[in-house]
Write a structure and sequence with these properties.
The complex is a heterodimer of chains A (about 325) and B (about 290).
Chain A lengths: L1 H9 L16 H6 L43 E5 L8 E6 L2 H4 L5 H13 L3 E2 L48 E2 L6 H17 L3 E4 L9 H10 L6 E5 L8 H8 L4 E5 L5 H6 L2 E5 H13 L12 H7 L3 E2 L4 E2 L5
Parallel strand pairs in A: 1-5, 5-8, 6-7, 6-8
Antiparallel strand pairs in A: 1-2, 3-4, 9-10
Helix pairs in contact in A: 4-5, 6-7
Chain B lengths: L3 H11 L39 H4 L14 H4 L14 E6 H9 L11 H6 L11 E7 L11 E4 L1 E2 L1 H9 L3 E4 L4 H8 L1 H5 L13 H7 L11 H15 L12 H5 L16 E3 L4 E3 L4 H8 L1
Parallel strand pairs in B: 1-2, 2-4, 3-5
Antiparallel strand pairs in B: 6-7
Helix pairs in contact in B: 6-10
The chains are: A alpha/beta (about 325), B alpha/beta (about 290).
Chain lengths: ~325, ~290
């Protein structure tokens, strides 16, 4: 995928060398075209999962390209709406089996949660060494002849009130970085578990008619969402709808997060996850990126450069013009 | 859901309580047991080292000691089997079969010239110039099945590979990249981010000049007319009809060649690429221009 990007960046037309003319790569075509669900063999029967299937009236299954081999069974979810209080099911959405139906590796999830809890810890405890304890410079009694044990200082570690031999010295960090593929895997597992346990709800958008927090609580009650709900959208927080933000701010257990900040801890902490279709689209591409890196650590550095300097995110399908 | 195993596992999870912080744990054996001091645990006290003696005090003689006689490993005289081995040039192998596979899977685009960058970004090779890697060696495994018409540039190849590529209607050339240039070619974005001017590609060292000026090896410094003749000779030798590259939709592709001092197509030495502003900065000073043009 990146070779195509680079070929456009590096091998510019020898006709015009003035500016590096950047052409948006058709990234989704690169990988997705191989496994497009619309490329099902002609001999197959029409199934409910085929997006090309048409009753003649409006199709129930959302036409959505899932970039996975066509023989795999895709998990499905209802596409709902927050516009009305009553639950309105708009369509059935096919989901990527490796993102929403991956094996529930609880140990990987545990590693992610532990990492999130531990890496921020700074332990500021500090205790005195024998040098820092007051006194203890003089030899307490002479080496020989007293009948007592030999000692050099009253503050050595074996003495009461002496210094500690290997004390904590303040400013100890437990920082470490869990590899990016393991973190992406953790997210996939968390989302698969949420979907399997009926705690995932996919909505078309987070627009609500009023900014009354009671409205959201009524919706949650109607749809059995439970005490805590995490809303996930693909936009940065500044661009989210004001109605929605006003409502959310008044409810303690309802939280909103952008896909940028999505993490296993938040996914497990909240009982229900409500995700927009945009977020699902983005996550499927971005999380599958980490499974397809062909094991090359030197290419992993290209993605941050593409995002921060070229302002293009291959998994968003458009140039990023945000403040990143 | 994917496979059956995944589906069954998720069905099991579905029937269990909600997965939360209190019911997940790591695999048994994942956490190493801490050191134990004192008489308390199994490795406490003497820590498995026994009572006083050389074993406990770490004053045993070295491995191979034979009680004083000259040990075996010192009796045998040294011979320089591996002298200079570490400094020899390495070329990472990529077979024609692999190249065909990459093209079929869409990881390499045959409509664009193929060079080291293409291979690295397709994930076929990992180039680390500090391992004395000087490029790519195109091996001839899969020569019978190779059918893609490509414009290929590698650093080492054999006569059979050249024949296989040319029979399919492609071109192949051998191009030398000094380690700095190869590093830049393999990791272009990371180089552009540095904001340094693109350096001139160096010419090959003495012992490689013969290879890169040899038309039968399609060296990039050899005479193009002699290469033309050699293509015919090769076709006769292996018994295939040489496709005409001057006709067809790909003729522009097959004419693309890099200048000996050029690392990237379309970019000259001395230029600085500004990724953020999407701009190319070229030297204006006459001295610099002359230096980079040389």
């Amino acid at each position: 995928m990146f070779s195509r990007v680079l070929q456009r960046v590096c091998r510019q037309s020898y006709v015009n060398n003035q500016n590096v003319q950047y052409v948006l790569p058709v990234c989704r075509g690169c990988i997705a075209s191989r496994f497009s669900s619309s490329e099902v063999a002609d001999g197959s029967k029409d199934s409910a999962t085929s997006p090309a299937f048409n009753h003649g009236s409006e199709s129930l299954v959302l036409e959505r390209e899932v970039a996975c081999p066509p023989h795999l069974q895709k998990p499905q979810a209802w596409l709902e709406s927050l516009e009305t209080r009553e639950s309105k099911k708009l369509a059935i959405v096919d989901l990527h089996p490796d993102v929403f139906g991956t094996f529930p590796r609880l140990d990987i999830l545990h590693r992610n949660i532990e990492w999130q809890k531990v890496y921020k810890i700074i332990d500021v405890r500090k205790e005195k060494t024998r040098a820092e304890c007051s006194g203890g410079g003089r030899k307490p009694w002479r080496q020989k002849g007293t009948g007592r044990a030999r000692h050099g200082s009253i503050r050595s570690p074996i003495w009461l009130k002496g210094g500690k031999a290997h004390p904590p010295r303040g400013g100890r960090t437990y920082w470490y970085v869990l590899p990016a593929p393991i973190r992406a895997w953790g997210l996939r597992i968390a989302m698969s578990i949420k979907h399997a346990q009926d705690n995932l709800c996919i909505v078309d958008s987070l627009d609500i008619p009023s900014s009354d927090p009671q409205y959201l609580e009524d919706i949650a009650k109607e749809r059995y969402w439970g005490e805590s709900v995490l809303f996930v959208d693909d936009k940065p927080l500044e661009e989210m709808s004001e109605n929605f933000m006003d409502a959310i701010n008044k409810i303690k257990t309802y939280n909103i997060i952008s896909t940028e900040g999505l993490n296993c801890y938040s996914l497990l902490k909240h009982e229900t996850i409500v995700m927009t279709l945009d977020a699902v689209n983005f996550l499927e591409l971005r999380l599958m990126f980490f499974t397809k890196q062909y094991g090359s650590p030197d290419l992993r550095q290209d993605l941050p450069i593409l995002r921060s300097q070229l302002k293009m995110d291959p998994h968003r399908g458009r140039s990023y013009s945000s403040k990143e | 859901m994917g496979s059956m195993g995944n589906r069954k596992a998720l069905e099991m999870v579905r029937s269990m309580p909600r997965v939360s912080f209190v019911n997940i744990r790591d695999n048994p054996g994942s956490k190493k047991q801490k050191k134990i001091r004192g008489q308390g645990g199994s490795r406490g006290g003497e820590s498995g080292r026994g009572r006083s003696g050389k074993s406990k005090r770490d004053t045993r003689p070295p491995i191979g000691y034979e009680g004083g006689t000259t040990p075996f490993y010192l009796r045998i005289p040294m011979f320089p089997f591996y002298k200079n081995f570490a400094t020899r040039r390495q070329y990472l192998p990529v077979s024609l079969e692999k190249l065909q596979h990459l093209i079929d899977m869409g990881r390499i685009d045959p409509e664009e010239p193929i060079d080291v960058t293409s291979f690295v970004h397709a994930g076929a090779v990992r180039i680390n110039v500090f391992d004395r890697v000087y490029g790519i060696h195109l091996t001839d495994e899969g020569a019978d099945k190779f059918v893609a018409p490509v414009n290929l540039e590698v650093q080492w190849t054999s006569e059979l590979s050249i024949a296989a590529v040319e029979r399919s209607g492609g071109t192949i050339s051998l191009g030398y990249y000094d380690p700095q240039s190869l590093d830049i070619l393999s990791h272009p974005l990371q180089f552009f981010r540095r904001g340094q001017p693109i350096p001139k590609r160096l010419l090959p060292p003495k012992d490689l000049v013969d290879m890169y000026t040899d038309p039968s090896k399609r060296g990039y410094l050899s005479d193009p007319n002699q290469i033309k003749e050699d293509r015919l000779l090769l076709a006769q030798k292996f018994g295939y009809e040489l496709p005409d590259l001057t006709k067809g939709s790909r003729r522009a592709l097959h004419r693309l060649r890099k200048d000996p001092r050029q690392i990237f197509f379309g970019l000259q030495p001395g230029w600085i690429i500004n990724l953020t502003d999407r701009a190319v900065l070229k030297p204006v000073d006459a001295e610099l221009q002359e230096f980079y043009r040389a």
